[in-house]
């Protein structure tokens, strides 16, 4: 009897150890594989200032950011921290997919004035009403769809501010809406017959010689409350700055048009006045807008202290990223204990960079 009991205890311990090991493996396994660095580094600006870089490094040490990369006129102005590490860029994904829609429209693959009903998309777990199906693709790009449903990736604040369902007709009211943003991923893939990561790699990453990005660095999250998955982008600070530089350079890279200039103008046009986010006054095609002389500053902003600043006046793009965790375990730890850089700190870095321009 005793030997049988010992064997039972042994097998229980063995199974428990195996389960714990498997759980630990998946908890520490990154969502995406580490990047294979390729391509060519950007040339440093000939007048790159050592004093400026030291000032930026000092600012970086005071805030929570892990990487800063700055491009001006296709030259590297600053590269501080782990600029070739992959980071979850969070809501900056929305500004990225906006660019893909601009390219797809130019190629004739997407009609922004088609309604959701006309293109045949729906949320199977929260079926759309007739009014909601009348929302146009353009309305989703403006966060003015009038569709107020549960969505993946929502913050508590977004949930609290969500209007009552069907309380506003499509195109009449602004609400920063993850359902819109996630559905755009579904629409893009249905209309172009390409995965989001595949399109970004082919249309943007390869033409701009991005050094870390791979199509597999776009991952999807699915949930029980909605049938609409959420796509996440993992990018390095250098590659994100290259993306931002396209907007700073009117859509061009080495004189070749990558994003239509007309789309840059449309994206930087405010379709809504912003009253609940102090630092921004308008929202374009998935870009936050801040007044600044002739052209507004364009901001991509993500939770966790992720920032992309596009300064069209000075032909400059600034990527400021924070490591919020790539494996599930470290990502969960960040949510509980992590800190992030603030808008004010990102704005200060922009001010330092443009002080003498």
UniProtKB/TrEMBL annotation:
UniProtKB keywords: Membrane, Transmembrane, Transmembrane helix
Protein name, per record: Beta-lactamase-related domain-containing protein
Organism: Exiguobacterium oxidotolerans
Highest taxon, organism lineage: Bacteria
Domain named Beta-lactamase-related: residues: 57-324
TM spans (from-to): 9-27
S-adenosyl-L-methionine in keyword set: no
Pfam families the UniProt entry points to: Beta-lactamase (PF00144)
């Amino acid at each position: 009897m005793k030997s049988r009991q010992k064997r039972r205890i042994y097998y229980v311990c063995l199974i428990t150890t195996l389960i714990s090991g498997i759980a630990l493996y998946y908890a520490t396994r990154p969502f995406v594989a580490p990047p294979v660095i390729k391509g060519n580094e950007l040339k440093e600006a000939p007048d790159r200032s050592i004093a400026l870089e030291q000032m930026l490094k000092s600012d970086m040490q005071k805030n929570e950011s892990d990487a800063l990369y700055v491009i001006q006129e296709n030259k590297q102005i600053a590269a501080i921290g782990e600029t070739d590490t992959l980071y979850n860029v969070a809501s900056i994904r929305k500004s990225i997919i906006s660019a893909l829609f601009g390219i797809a429209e130019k190629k004739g693959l997407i009609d922004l004035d088609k309604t959701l009903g006309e293109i045949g998309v729906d949320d199977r777990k929260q079926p759309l009403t007739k009014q909601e199906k009348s929302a146009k693709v353009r309305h989703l790009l403006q966060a003015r769809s009038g569709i107020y449903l549960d969505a993946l990736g929502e913050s508590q604040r977004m949930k609290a501010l969500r209007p009552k369902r069907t309380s506003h007709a499509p195109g009449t009211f602004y609400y920063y809406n993850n359902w819109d943003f996630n559905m755009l991923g579904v629409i893009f893939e249905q209309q172009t017959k390409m995965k989001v990561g595949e399109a970004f790699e082919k249309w943007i990453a390869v033409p701009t010689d991005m050094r870390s990005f791979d199509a597999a660095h776009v991952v999807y999250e699915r949930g029980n409350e909605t049938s609409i998955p959420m796509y996440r982008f993992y990018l390095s600070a250098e590659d994100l700055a290259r993306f931002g530089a396209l907007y700073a350079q009117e859509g061009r890279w080495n004189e070749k048009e990558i994003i239509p200039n007309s789309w840059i103008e449309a994206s930087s046009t405010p379709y809504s006045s912003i009253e609940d986010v102090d630092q921004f006054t308008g929202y374009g095609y998935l870009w936050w807008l801040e007044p600044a002389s002739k052209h507004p500053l364009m901001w991509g902003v993500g939770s966790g202290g992720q920032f992309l600043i596009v300064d069209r006046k000075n032909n400059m793009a600034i990527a400021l990223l924070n490591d919020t965790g790539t494996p599930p375990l470290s990502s969960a730890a960040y949510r509980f204990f992590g800190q992030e850089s603030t808008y004010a700190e990102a704005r200060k870095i922009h001010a330092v960079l443009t002080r003498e321009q």
